[in-house]
Amino acid sequence: MGEAIVITSGKGGVGKTTTSANLGTALALMEKKVCLIDTDIGLRNLDVVMGLENRIIYDIIDVIIGRCALKQALIKDKRFDHLYLLPAAQTSDKSDLTTEGMEKIVAELKPEFDYIIIDCPAGIEQGYKNAVAGADKAIVVTTPEKPSVRDADRIIGLLEQEDIEPPKLIVNRIRNHMVEDGDMLEVDEIVQVLSIDLLGIVADDEQVIKASNHGEPVAFQPNTKASIAYRNIARRILGESVPLMSFEDEKGMFSRLKKFFTKSK
Amino acid sequence: MIGNKQIITIKGTREGLSLHMDDACSFEELLEELEAKLAANRIDSADQIVGVHIQLGNRYLEKEQEELLRRMITSKQRLRIESVHSEVITKQAAIEWKEEAEVKAVSRVVRSGQVLEVKGDLLLLGDVNPGGCVTATGNIFVMGNLLGIAHAGKDGDTDAVIAASYMNPTQLRIAGYISRAPDHETDGVYMECGHIDDEQQKIIIDRLQAVVRKRPGISSFERRMLNG
């Protein structure tokens, strides 16, 4: 029996879809059977990030209103045989997606897959409720900015009322130089305010944007910072204990010495 | 019927008249006697209005009965009712009173968009995050970080205080007073307490020890009872 994990954030644009795509890919890289579900009806883009847009025939609304079987709507990934995507509808009526419909789909997928990753739309309205309906676990994505942390806090409060495990946190798009200068919130500070377990941290990496544009999740790349971060998170989801990676840029001996002396002042 | 025992005894005190009403007779008898007493002691209309304290003893009055009594007294004479005191209250009123007088311990994080309301004092074991709000009719004690809004003395108790292990709130409200965080970023303070300063007539934050000195009754049961 698989596990359904919803990726949510409250605020838009913090990287829910990117995180969904990359965690799905990273889990698939570890030989897990994974199904991604895009629940952002009308604004679907998980298929774009995965590079599967041209393969869509049926979508989640078609499944719910019975225009096709669930198996027909699932799109097999072009890189893995055990990674699938259930795309969101682009033009159908939003209100056709209900919590009951969502629960049914997830229940049907669970025996077939190890992990079901649900990409949640921004906001706390019906779309959010649908996405959370079938989930067993939740991952909250935030960036090190106040508005994003505030919304994450709000969404954690709402998730606590659901019948799911306490949510875990991913801090996305960390720019180390800004944190060092005090212009960005520190991860410790965010974790302290939100008081939930930290699942992972992801650096703000240009490669992520490049990869999204090419429809190839960054988790595929062997050694960019973001891809390692996503693969580490996937390993933690599988239960391994992986230390958080350091963001310190590789600097020369001189600058490290300089730092040492400025600290000791 | 009642013999010589007087149903209503009138005493003059420094605070005005004190009307002691027998609590063994029926309410009708009481009203009858009161009417007679009021008619007997006619007071000149030029006289000053006198304050009256009514002592009901072990009698409980319904709202309508009390209204009737008040109307009778104030219409017949130049009297003003200062207080109506009864030794008994209903069970429901007692339960409400007890609720107001309790310290409610809650352990959770009050997150953005959440509101935690209690009657009486609030002891929160956890944080109030930015965007979160806690209110109490009494004091608020936060064993954690107070970063959101706290409203103590919500029903108007200006003696209420707000204390927190770490305080960097968006707003502090006590009774009808509101103070907000400064526009520049601040570091917050540890183990301090917000209260209304009588001279400045605004909310100020001081060390916990200093506030305890100003509000010696802060933790006493009597204070909470009287607030009820």
TrEMBL record, chain A:
Keywords: ATP-binding, Cell cycle, Cell division, Nucleotide-binding, Septation. One of its GO terms (molecular function) is ATP hydrolysis activity. SUPFAM superfamilies: P-loop containing nucleoside triphosphate hydrolases (SSF52540). InterPro entries: AAA_dom, MinD, MinD_FleN, P-loop_NTPase, ParA/MinD_ATPase. ATP binds at residues 11-18. Residues 3-156 form the AAA domain. The keyword ATP-binding applies. One of its GO terms (cellular component) is cytosol. Pfam families: AAA_31. GO terms for biological process: division septum assembly; negative regulation of cell division. ATPase required for the correct placement of the division site. Cell division inhibitors MinC and MinD act in concert to form an inhibitor capable of blocking formation of the polar Z ring septums. Rapidly oscillates between the poles of the cell to destabilize FtsZ filaments that have formed before they mature into polar Z rings. Belongs to the ParA family. MinD subfamily. This is Septum site-determining protein MinD. It comes from Terribacillus aidingensis.
From TrEMBL, chain B:
Residues 106-205 form the Septum formation inhibitor MinC C-terminal domain. Gene3D superfamilies: 2.160.20.70, 3.30.160.540. The keyword Repeat does not apply. One of its GO terms (biological process) is division septum assembly. Pfam families: MinC_C (PF03775), MinC_N_1 (PF22642). Signal peptide: none annotated. Keywords: Cell cycle, Cell division, Septation. Residues 8-84 form the Septum site-determining protein MinC N-terminal domain. Belongs to the MinC family. Interacts with MinD and FtsZ. PANTHER family: SEPTUM SITE-DETERMINING PROTEIN MINC (PTHR34108:SF1). Cell division inhibitor that blocks the formation of polar Z ring septums. Rapidly oscillates between the poles of the cell to destabilize FtsZ filaments that have formed before they mature into polar Z rings. Prevents FtsZ polymerization. This is Probable septum site-determining protein MinC. The gene is minC.
